[in-house]
């Protein structure tokens, strides 16, 4: 099966109010679970100080349609695609979507803009490390039939 992956960074437009933010993230996760299962897309979503970092993978056709929807999503802006390429295997095959905690303790010189400038291999390593360390806040597992 031919697969494609996308890694992007964007700026959240979701209000910072805790309840509004939780409701919006819950809605994103529910939509992702429904749509991604139907389209055989897997991946992870992370949030760090007002920025989204998302890695998604799946068949090229549905991935193109998903990117089009993401570009028009009013919950974020300034979407910068860092990776858009074919892949042979999935990095996150178990999840239709997982929400990861990647927030680092404040480091001298760290800025959320680093998500736009950090080398993509470091961004992917950060996502994989969060998944391996079980910094998972929410998960929509793929059905057993999909594996």
TrEMBL record:
PROSITE patterns assigned: BLUF
Domain BLUF positions: 3-98
Gene3D superfamilies noted in UniProt: 3.30.70.100
InterPro entries associated with the record: Acylphosphatase-like_dom_sf, BLUF_domain
Single GO MF annotation: blue light photoreceptor activity
Lineage: superkingdom: Bacteria
Protein's recorded name: BLUF domain-containing protein
Species name: Marinicauda pacifica
């Amino acid at each position: 099966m031919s697969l494609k992956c996308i890694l992007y960074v964007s700026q959240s437009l979701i209000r910072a109010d805790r309840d509004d933010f939780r409701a919006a993230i819950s809605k994103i996760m529910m939509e992702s679970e429904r749509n991604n299962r139907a389209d055989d897309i897997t991946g992870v979503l992370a949030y760090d100080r007002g920025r989204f970092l998302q890695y998604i993978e799946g068949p090229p056709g549905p991935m193109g349609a998903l990117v089009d929807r993401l570009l028009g999503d009013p919950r974020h802006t300034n979407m910068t695609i860092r990776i858009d390429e074919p892949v042979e295997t999935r990095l996150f095959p178990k999840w239709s979507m997982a929400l990861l905690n990647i927030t680092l303790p404040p480091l001298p010189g760290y800025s959320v803009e680093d998500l736009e400038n950090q080398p993509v291999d470091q961004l992917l390593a950060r996502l994989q490390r969060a998944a391996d360390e079980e910094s998972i806040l929410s998960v929509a597992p793929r059905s057993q039939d999909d594996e």
